[in-house]
Amino acid sequence: MRARKKSWAEPYLEAHGELVIGEIDPSSDFFLSSPKYLEIGIGKGDFILQMASAHPGCYLGLERDSNVLAVAAKKVVEASFENRIHLMLVDFDDAYESLSQLRFDVIFLNFSDPWPKKRHWKRRLTERKRLANIVSLLEDDGEIRVKTDNQSLYQFTLEEAEADGLDIVVSEENYEFDSAHDAMSEYESRFRGLGNPIYRIILKKKVK
Ligand SMILES: C[S@@+](CC[C@H](N)C(=O)[O-])C[C@H]1O[C@@H](n2cnc3c(N)ncnc32)[C@H](O)[C@@H]1O
Predict the structure, then answer these.
(1) Of residues 131, 153, 145, 133, the one with CA closest to residue 203
(2) Residue 99 maps to which CATH number?
(3) Considering the chain, what percentage of its residues have pLDDT values greater than 70?
(4) DSSP state at residue 41
(5) Is the pLDDT of residue 23 over 70?
């Protein structure tokens, strides 16, 4: 879903180059810290901000829509969290090559676009080739945590994970929110408010 255009969004992102980075420098102090977390499709940033305030580490958030990323960036600046969170205005497919200089402990996919029409399933973040690319960014014992309210995306993700030979550590159809280890994104708050079940999957690389 496209957010309404905000005239201040792009100038704001450009003015905050310390937070909204254009490229990855793996030798920077930021990326030398650990654990490392990546969220793909951060929306307006509630999840990444709550996680970073509860669980120290280095958080990188990707978002391809400048109008929502600017809202997230403003929240990070207001919370003075630029040391813990960096953001990129980019599509995952375009960022993948430069991200592969890093290894993440946890990669979050929260309420990714469901692309309901079958002819668009190739665009889903968990499509098997893209999912294999995401997995290649993990530390050996790292994990991918997926949440969605969309049953089709949930089933699809399980099938793609099987096809990629991943270990499905958790797959649950009515995830009870675990506030000690998790945070709520804008979409999760909205869907829980509507009483929708939340599906959750945790994936790891198979130990050889
Ligand atoms: C349905 S929204 C969910 C936002 C947020 N994760 C949440 O749970 O509230 C999906 C977001 O992912 C972003 N997105 C989708 N595909 C992406 C991609 N390939 N790379 C970066 N961002 C992406 C969209 O622009 C959108 O803001």
Answers:
(1) 145
(2) 3.40.50.150
(3) 99
(4) S
(5) yes
Q: Which is nearest to 38 in space by CA: 127, 125, 144, 168?
A: 144
Domain presence at residue 121:
yes
The residue contributing the CA closest to ligand 1 atom 4 is: 43
- Measuring CA to CA, which residue among 32, 23, 105, 30 is closest to residue 62? 23
Q: What share of the chain is helix, strand, coil (3-state, %, to 5)?
A: 35, 25, 40
| Residue 178 tokens, joined | 């675990």
| Whole-angstrom distance, CA of residue 194 vs CA of residue 10 | 33
pLDDT of residue 199: 98
Number of domains in the chain: 1
The CA-atom distances, in angstroms, between 82 and each of 11, 37, 86 are: 18, 14, 6
**Local confidence band at 2 (pLDDT 50, 70, 90 cut-offs):** low
- Decide if 113 is catalytic: yes
Pocket lined around ligand 1, Cβ cut-off 6 Å: 40-43, 62-65, 68, 91-92, 110-113, 125, 185-188
Q: Look at residue 184 and tell me whether its pLDDT is greater than 90.
A: yes
